[in-house]
Amino acid sequence: MLQSHLKNRIVEAFSIYVALLLILASGTAQSNSALIPDSGDASPAPIWEEIVRSDGIVVSQLESDESSHPTFRGRVSIPATPYEVLAVLRDVARHSEWMDRCVEARRVEEMGPLQYVVYNRTESGWPAADRDVVLRSQIEISEEGARIFLRFRAVEKDDIPRVEDVVRMETLEGYYHLAGSEAGLTHVEYRVSVDPGGSIPRWLIHRRMRDLPLMTLARLREQVASTHGHYSKQIDTWKQIVAFENPHRSDTPVLP
Q1: How many Å apart are CA 224 and CA 229, to the nearest integer?
Q2: What is the topology classification, in CATH, of domain 49-245?
């Protein structure tokens, strides 16, 4: 009986000891978790402020401590394929037909169907002088062609002389992101960050930059509709490029 009683006391004491260890271990883990940073990206998500919502277009801005000028973003859905929207964006000679305040646009260097350099001049309106910029553009197409990026960034080119009374914008970058959907729509996101240079009142810069994505996307939507079927050859070229880079796919044409 005595041996049995001692055995039970030993088992009970061991159980309590194990329980205490587990409690201590749990407390230590919780304490350490508050001290050890998460291995993932702990940076907060950017906070976009919606400033305009009109006719299916939403425009937002993002303030940054790293820049005195906010980044602007516009979003719209267009009843077309990503390729059809891209074709309008790629037709630089017709940018003045739909791009907000664009008075001149021309391709100055061609580096293939997915990379090129353009010159763009924008009417600023009184009291500001016109602005111009030289942009290098790069097209990126996903394997299935359902997602497309057209990125652009200001570059210096000595062979494009500066125009008298026109301010050359040296800092400008952004992109168009085109995402197709099963509903036959392309969701377009247009993002741009720019320092217009010169001396323009801040309130005027904000108003111009607010209107830029709104008017540009509204007219882009109209341009895509009015040019439907016009860019079939260019679209076939892009599809062939995608097929060539992804030869194991069976749903796209191959190069002849």
Answers
A1: 9
A2: Alpha-D-Glucose-1,6-Bisphosphate; Chain A, domain 4 (3.30.530)
pLDDT in tens, 131-169: 999 999 999 999 888 999 999 999 999 899 999 999 999
pLDDT in tens, 186-211: 999 999 999 888 766 666 666 777 78
CA quadruple 191, 196, 201, 204: dihedral, nearest 10: -40
Residue 148 to residue 139: CA distance in whole angstroms: 7
Count of all residues that appear for the chain in the document:
256
Rounded distance between C-alpha atoms, residue 58 and residue 75, angstroms: 5
Q: What are phi and psi of 7, to 5 degrees?
A: -60, -45
Domain boundaries, the chain: 1-29, 49-245
The pair of structure tokens assigned to 246 is 């992804």
